[in-house]
Write a structure and sequence with these properties.
Strand 1 and strand 2 form a beta hairpin. The chain has 3 helices and 7 strands. The chain has about 150 residues and is of the alpha+beta class. It has one domain: 60s Ribosomal Protein L30, Chain: A (2-Layer Sandwich). Helix 2 crosses helix 3. The longest helix has 23 residues. The strands form 2 sheets. A 5-stranded mixed sheet has the order 1-2-7-5-6, covered by helices on one side.
Length: about 150
Amino acid sequence: MDIEQRLAELGIELPASPTPVASYVPVKIAGNIAYVAGQIARVDGENVHPGRLGSEVSVEQGQEAARLCALQALAALREALGGFDRLKGIAKVEVFVASEPGFTDQPAVANGASDLLAELMGEAGVHARAAVGVVELPLGASVEVVVTAEIG
């Protein structure tokens, strides 16, 4: 699995590793597990598709935000690990979706992150997952993605 090569093949450039906006670290390594802090979709310091799914944000926009969150998580992993050589796979992805009452398409939104990881990493990118609807997310984000990875 050569993630850098796959990114190049797909014409995808990873964003800069995200800077924490509060008191936490982007990645915490414990044994052979790397825990990536929750990522919200931001470009140049601005939220991408802020708001709630089911009103201001469409499922497609939510998927785009989830995809960007997954790319940011990979950027954080690359920086913490000094590259992708130690990355064995993605164990779990948790996707939190700011949702209006009655909105039940959280799994479809989460596919934005899941599909990207599988596309980039093949079987190593296939993971367990939770897709959860919440009332609010930090900074008005529509989606937040948390990644747990296995490393060597």
